[in-house]
Predict the structure.
Amino acid sequence: MKGIYCFAGHPVEIESVFPQIHELCAVYRSDGRPEYAVRTTRGDIDYEREKSNAESFFEGREPPCYSDAYLETLAVYRKLAECLLDEHILLFHGSAIAVDGIAYLFTAKSGTGKSTHTRLWREVFGPRAVMINDDKPLLKIGERGVTVYGTPWDGKHRLSGNISAPLKAVCILERGVRNRIFPISAREAWPMLLQQSNRPQKPDKLKKTIQMADALAHRVLLYRLYCNMSPDAVKTAWAGMNEGARK
């Protein structure tokens, strides 16, 4: 099964075992000539299952019962992410939202509340706020800045759009009793930025990923936000990232 889809401005041909990946990517369908080709096999699906089971064992959880079709969507995105590294595009784990056309990316350890926080942004800002991607956006890292793109790999809440916006800031989210935000240095942000970047196993691809994560740290503003998951946390974050501006 084949189809051509455009991700972060680059047409990609996907050839799959199961049809579900084409349903997932339907709104990204393209008539453009593909620049890259991603093809999956049963071996790729088996690899994703082994990887998922190993992660569950390491974390002390029961292995999840994922379908082959779902695991194939992960295999496609992993291959796609490696292709797009050549275009200075990085797959990043976080929740990206745009307000008035400017994007903010929240990242944190799993379970901290990234999706809850960006849901509060949508409640506070209403139609001014648009979700770009709630789980795995793509970041195009240029000389003058970073653009964040939506993808169909958007988390359990399925929140994303086939849209893009200039990225103003990356904010590392942590739970706290009192809402407070402060700027941090590239050095302080670096461990989390690398951890949340997709890290390929191939040495040359991993080297590019490290270089791009470093570039990301120097192209956008960086913050750490302690918050209690209330609307006031949104106001604190917005003011801190916009030099004290009110919403």
